[in-house]
Design brief:
Keywords: Membrane, Transmembrane, Transmembrane helix. The protein is mostly helical. It contains 5 helices and 2 strands, in the order ααααββα.
Length: 165
C-alpha cells in the first residue's frame, strides 16, 4: 500500500499547478460578485431587452466568469523563475485581481444602477421640497425615496460583505 508523500505535491511542475489552482480559488468569489453585479445591471438598465431575462444570458454570465478566472490566473503557469516560490509580484497580482479590480467594477456598476433607478423614480414621481428664501428665488431640494434608500443600503451591504468576506 502506498502512502501520500507531501514531497511529490511540491514537485516543480505540480507546484505551478498548485499556484494556478490557488489563484483561481482566490478570485472565484470576487468574480462571482462581479458576475452578479453585471447580471443585475443588465437586467435593470436594459429591462426591455428580453435576452437579459433568459437562461442563455445566465449561462453566458457564469461561463464568462469561469473563463475570466482561468485567463487571469494564466501568469502563474507562464512565469519565469523558481517553481515553488511565492514571489512578491504574484501576491500583488492576486490582491489586485481579487480585491481592487472587482471592487472598482462593482462600485462603477452599482453607481450606474443607482443613478438609473433614481432617474426613473424621479420621472415617475418627481418629489421636491421648495425651500422659501428671503429673495424671490426658491431653492428646490430633491427627496430620496424609500425605494432608492433601500437600494443604496443593499448595495452598501453587499459591498461590505464583499470586502469583509
Amino acid at each position: 500500500m502506498r502512502y501520500f508523500d507531501v514531497r511529490r505535491l511540491f514537485a516543480p511542475h505540480l507546484c505551478i499547478l498548485l499556484f494556478y489552482v490557488y489563484n483561481i480559488a482566490g478570485v472565484a468569489i470576487p468574480f462571482s460578485f462581479v458576475t452578479f453585479t453585471i447580471h443585475r445591471f443588465c437586467c435593470i438598465v436594459y429591462h426591455t431587452n428580453l435576452f437579459f431575462k433568459t437562461k442563455r444570458w445566465v449561462t453566458i454570465c457564469i461561463a464568462s466568469q469561469w473563463i475570466g478566472e482561468f485567463v487571469i490566473s494564466l501568469p502563474f503557469i507562464f512565469r519565469r523563475g523558481s517553481y515553488c516560490s511565492n514571489e512578491l509580484w504574484m501576491q500583488i497580482y492576486t490582491c489586485t485581481m481579487a480585491t481592487f479590480l472587482p471592487s472598482l467594477i462593482n462600485t462603477v456598476l452599482n453607481i450606474r444602477i443607482f443613478a438609473y433607478v433614481r432617474s426613473s423614480t424621479q420621472r415617475i414621481q418627481p418629489q421636491v421640497i421648495v425651500i422659501p428664501t428671503n429673495s424671490s428665488n426658491n431653492i428646490q431640494q430633491s427627496i430620496i425615496s424609500r425605494r432608492d434608500m433601500s437600494l443604496l443600503r443593499q448595495m452598501i451591504f453587499i459591498f461590505f460583505i464583499f470586502i469583509i468576506g
